[in-house]
Amino acid sequence: MGKAILIVDDSASVRQVVSIALKGAGYDVIEGCDGKDALTKLNGQKIHLIISDVNMPNMDGITFVKEVKKLPNYKFTPIIMLTTESQEGKKQEGQAAGAKAWVVKPFQPAQMLTAVAKLILP
């Protein structure tokens, strides 16, 4: 059983790219199509890291991060924000909510894996 990573993005193609890179590196991948959907996946199973988009329908990434931090089981799960937003304001909002890293799209899978390896819980 590899380490589980939850990837949250409303774009199926982005989820696919991230998923292929992570699975190739030996991680297990759980997918959510937006913040609301992703919260249903946080049902007590062990998740070592979350990668979330910022701009999504139903529940955006920043709200999602705030919701995750309210859950005792996932309060300390590291979160990487994945986004086309490189604005400082958004970045600060994400960090204030509890995101640990920020990866701007388009990204190189190798860059993503480096961020993951640095943050993933043992």
Automatic annotation (TrEMBL):
Modification 4-aspartylphosphate occurs at: 53
Residue ranges constituting the Response regulatory domain according to the UniProt record: 4-120
Keyword Transmembrane: no
Pfam families: Response_reg
Keywords: Phosphoprotein
Phosphoprotein in keyword set: yes
Record SMART domains: REC
InterPro entries from the UniProt entry: Bact_response_regulator (IPR050595), CheY-like_superfamily (IPR011006), Sig_transdc_resp-reg_receiver (IPR001789)
Record-given protein name: Chemotaxis regulator - transmits chemoreceptor signals to flagelllar motor components CheY
Species of provenance: Candidatus Nitrotoga arctica
